[in-house]
Amino acid sequence: MAKLKRNVIEFYSPTNEYYPVVYLNDYWNLNEDYKPVNETTPILPIHITLAPLSLFKWQLYAAQTAKKTWFNQLMATSMLPSENENDEEQDTIKKALIETNPLLLAVTVVVSIVHSVFELLAFKNDIQFWKTRESLEGLSVRSVFFNVFQSFIVVLYVLDNDTNFVIKLSVVFGLLIEIWKIKKVLSFRLDYDSLVFNVFPRIHVDYQSSYVESDTKKYDQMAFRYLSWILFPLLAAYCGYSLIYEEHRGWYSWILSVSYGFLLTFGKFMLYTWNEPLISIEVA
């Protein structure tokens, strides 16, 4: 009997009927399960599970296989993560599906979706607030620069720890928003009468007039001065503790880990204390 092979389906030519599909499914094989084979392993145990597979599941597995092949081809000519990073992310998802209770997994998915929605709403409200804000009275300009620094450290920390793409996208978008706020708190002016190297106009940067003419600037500076007396010694102590008692891949990772941990611990407290006198100014 002649057979016409089309991918994994074999057809019987006279009647154009196909034979039962035999699909080798290695989707659930994790990278950590693979072991090196050499002369010390002359005999290898092989465990084969033969079971029927529904058409829907077969389509899912076949789609994942095609996706991996397409991704590996695209990866060679793009800035996408490496194949190892993609496999690690896939293994993380597989382990979660295998080892996690289905009810807990469903709750985790729902919470993640709700968190993403609230995060988008927070971005939207933050942009809307600063876009419509005309006066800086009662707002801390220094906290804007602190947020830029904090978001920048978070981005570097996330990139250094190979987090998944969704989190990377979220923190980078948050950093771009914080950088955009700088334009709202500072005024930039080009001075063509004073050229740099007789070519480029000199850039003058000043605070917005609504910030300079109010008491906000005075209290902003006072809050930063008092907080620095407390936080800088704590930062030095935390650096020493992390250097002695914790393990790090290198100096760069140590700096990022210390900065991220310190900002995560004291950042919210710092911003709350920072803005407390400024809130009283706005209410008054």
Tally the structural domains. 2
Percent in strands: 5-15%
End-to-end C-alpha gap: 93 Å
How many H/I helical runs? 8
Main location: membrane
Subcellular location: Membrane
Pfam families: CLPTM1
Family: Belongs to the CLPTM1 family.
Q: Could you outline the blueprint of secondary structure elements for this entry?
A:
Blueprint: E1 3-6, E2 9-12, E3 17-18, H1 55-75, H2 83-99, H3 102-132, H4 141-160, H5 165-185, E4 186-196, E5 200-207, H6 209-212, H7 216-245, H8 251-283
Antiparallel strand pairs: 1-2, 2-3, 4-5
Helix pairs in contact: 3-5, 4-5, 4-8, 7-8
Family: Belongs to the CLPTM1 family.
Keywords: Membrane, Transmembrane, Transmembrane helix
Membrane topology: Multi-pass membrane protein
